[in-house]
Structure formats: C-alpha cells, structure tokens
Amino acid sequence: MSLPYRPNVGAVLFNPQGLILVARRADMPNAEGAAGGWQLPQGGMDEGEDPAVAVLRELEEEVGTAHAEILAEHPEWLTYDLPPELLGKALGGKWRGQKQKWFALRFLGVDADIRLDLDPHPEFDAWRWAPLAELPSMAVPFKRAIYERLAVDFARFAA
After folding, report:
1. Torsion angles phi and psi, residue 137, rounded to 5
2. SS3 74
C-alpha cells in the first residue's frame, strides 16, 4: 500500500468514578447504539508536535476542556487500516489509516466544563460517561482491536 498512516493522538479521559468520556459523532446523530457512533476524542498531530502536547490540544478542540492531566502514555503506536471502501475517501483521501499514540488522562473539571458547542463545526453532538469495558462494543470494526487493547491496557485507571 502506497498511502502512509496519519499521525494521530487519542484521549481516554477518566472521571473520578473511573468512567470514560465517549462522544457521539455529529455525522451519526441516529447512532445511539450503533458501533462507531460513539468514540473517544482523537485527532491529527501537527508536523513536529509532541504527542503529549497534541493530546491536550485535541481534547480542548474536540470536547472543549483543558481540565485534564496525563496519567499514562501507551507505550506503543497503535495502527489501523481503513477498509477498502473508505480508501481514497476518508481522512481526506491521503492516508491508509492512522498511527495513534493513546493517553490515559484524569478529568480535573466538572461536567459543565465539557463544551461541545465551542467549535463552529463540532465533530461531536453529544457525550456521556461510560464504563471502559464497554469501549470495544462502541467501535467500528476496523478500530475495534485498538479499543480492545485500550480497555485492557488502561483498565487500572477505571478502578
């Protein structure tokens, strides 16, 4: 495959009860229970950007809060490939999938600090706290292996 992976960061944001923030994609408003309708905040990295800086920036851009601190960085870059029907269409048509650095973060604010309405073109239209164990069932099939891995590797923060 000639297309590269897009460098990306992802945030697993834990509240004091050990639940994680998941958000519903604005382009899937009727996906209440559908796999892929709910996901973790994630986004592309700028050229030369440090992943730890990028994840905090993305969290603020996507869910409107800077009230978080990094608990852990996943030791590996995790990758997924787009399915053939999305190649050349998704991710601007320039990428085969994403190479992601994931972080576990502690939420330091209150629920009112989550603001999806700050972006004029929000990626998400709803959010909620969910058990980490539910994460894999929320993922689209091509991202499920990453969410399964995160549910195991960051389980210590859900306790």
Report:
1. -70, -15
2. coil
Whole-angstrom distance, CA of residue 84 vs CA of residue 94: 13
Structure-block tokens of residue 78: 């995790």
**Count of domains observed in the chain:** 1
User: Which 8-state DSSP code applies to residue 95?
Assistant: -
Report pLDDT digits (tens) over 95-115. Answer: 889 999 999 999 999 999 999
- The CATH number of residue 53's host domain is 3.90.79.10
Return the number of other C-beta atoms located less than 10 Å from residue 99's C-beta: 16
Domain that holds residue 123: 5-157
- pTM for this entry: 0.92
Q: In whole numbers, what is the pLDDT of the chain averaged over residues? A: 91
| Mean pLDDT of the region 126-145 | 93
In this structure, are strands 97-107 and 5-14 parallel, antiparallel, or unpaired? parallel
Q: How far is CA 34 from the centre of its chain?
A: 17
CA triple 136-141-142, angle to 5 deg: 110
Q: For 26-156, where are the E strands, in sequence order?
A: 38-39, 42-44, 68-73, 78-81, 97-107, 124-130
Q: Which of 80, 87, 99 is nearest to 3 (CA)?
A: 87
20 strand-pairing partners: 14, 130
Look at residue 78 and give its three-state secondary structure: strand
